Amino acid sequence: MSTNADYTSEYFDILDGLEGDVESRRAAYSYMESSTAIVHHEVVACSFVPRLFNARTYDVFKQTAETAHRILVKVMQRYLDDPEYRTIFSFDPRLEELILLPRGYDALLPFARVDVFLDEDDYRIGFCEFNADGSSGMNENREITNSLLGSESFKRFSQNHAVKPCELFESWVDEFLAIYATYEHRVDNPHVAICDYLENAVIDEFKVFAGLFEARGVECSIYDVRELSFDGSALVGSDGKRVDAIWRRSVTNDVIEHWDESQGLIEAVRAEKVALIGSFAGHIVHDKQIFEALFHPKTVEMLDADEIDFIEQTIPTTSFLDDEHANLDQIRANKNEWIIKPTDHYGADDVYAGAYVDEEEWNRLIDRFANGAAGEPFLVQRYITPYKTATLPPDTHIAEMTDEQVRERTSSAPYNNLSGLYLYNGTFQGVFSRLGPRPTISKDMAGITAATIWVDAEKTAENDPSDTEGR
Length: 471
Hints:
The chain is of the alpha+beta class. 36% of the residues lie in helices and 20% in strands. Strands 4, 5, 18, 19, 20 and 21 form a 6-stranded antiparallel sheet that branches. A 4-stranded parallel sheet has the order 8-7-12-13, with helices on one face. The protein is globular.
C-alpha cells in the first residue's frame, strides 16, 4: 500500500511536470476568492495540494473516531444519571442546569468533531481536543475541494488512482431528520432553525445547510439565539415563525455569556417545546476537563479493557494548571513538553505551546494562568509534536504575479498536521484537514485548510469524485 507521503510526492511530481500548473492554480485561487469559504469575514487560506489519505488512514480515523464517541457517550450518560459522578467536573452551576435539561430524542451526541494528531509513519494517534455542536469547517472543505476538482494536476492524479472527497452535507441533513423523527414531541412538517450567536457564526456554512433542508421540503431558518422568544407554548424567531427543531451551533460558554438574552431558548427547552439537537449535554465533551475526567477512577470503572487501553494510548496527560494538580516547577523547567489551554474556549483562543515561546515568556504565561490567576481555570497538557507533511503554501497574491513567479513558488514546504474527524451520531463521516508552519495550528498562527481526498480506499471510492455536495 502506498503511504500518504507517496501520494503527496506523486502529486508534486505532477505539478512539476505541468510546470507548476499555473493556469489551474489561478483558477482555483479565483474560485476561492468568490467562494462561501468565509470565516470572520475573510476567505480562508488554503493549499492547492490536497491531503491525500490511503485506506489504512481511513480505517485508523474511523476506528479512532467511533471508539471515542462510544466512550464520550458513556461519560455523558453517567453524568446525567449519577449526581455523585458530576462532582468530578467543575462547571458553572448554570452550565450544570443546562446540561440536565430534558432532551426527548435518542441521540446523546448527535454531532461532533474530534481533533487528532496522526503520525503517518506508524499510525499512532493522539487527541488534541473534542468538539461538539459548534464544530465547523465542513464548508471550507467543500469549497476548497470544488476549487481543485477541475485542475489539470488533480485530473492527472485521478487517472492513476481511485479518489473520493468527503461528503459532509447531505449526510448530516439525513441524520438530523432521522434524530428528529425520534423526538417525543415531533410534529409533521417541522420548521428547523440553525442557531448561534451570529457574530461568532460561520454564516455561509449555515446557508448551505439551510438550502439543503429546503431542498428536502423542510423549512429552515437561521436565527441568532438572542432573537428567539418563548410565550409559554411556542418558541418563535424574530420573524414570528414557530420553531420546532434547532440545530444548536452555539457553544455553551456563549450561552453563559449571554445568559439573560438567551432565556427564550432555555425556557423552551425546559418546557420541552422545541427539539434542541444537540442538547446542552454536549458541553461535557466540549469542555477540556474531559481529558482529565477520562482518567478518573469513576470513569475507568465503567469502561471495558479495550476502552481503557484506548484512552491510555491516545489521550495526552492533562491536569488543571494549579499547585494542587500539577508540578508547576517541572512544567516551568520543561516548557517544550507542555501546552497551556483554557478549559472552555474555542478557536485556539489563549492556547500556548511551550515550544513556541522562550523561557521568560513561558514563565510569564504560567504566572498569568496558574492557580486561577486569570479568573477562570486553565489546563496544562502534554504537547504532542504534530506530524509534518509536504504541502504547497497558499498562493497569496497570485493574481499580481507573473506565470514565471508562480512557477518559482511550486516547491513543497513542511507543515504540521491536525485532522478533525467528523462524527454524525457516532458514525465517522470525514475529515477537516488543517495545517500550519508553527507549533500551534490555528488561523491566527498562519494555519491553512486543505481538501481531504481518500485515495485507493475501496470502501470510500463508491462515487465519482466530481459528484461533490452542493456544487
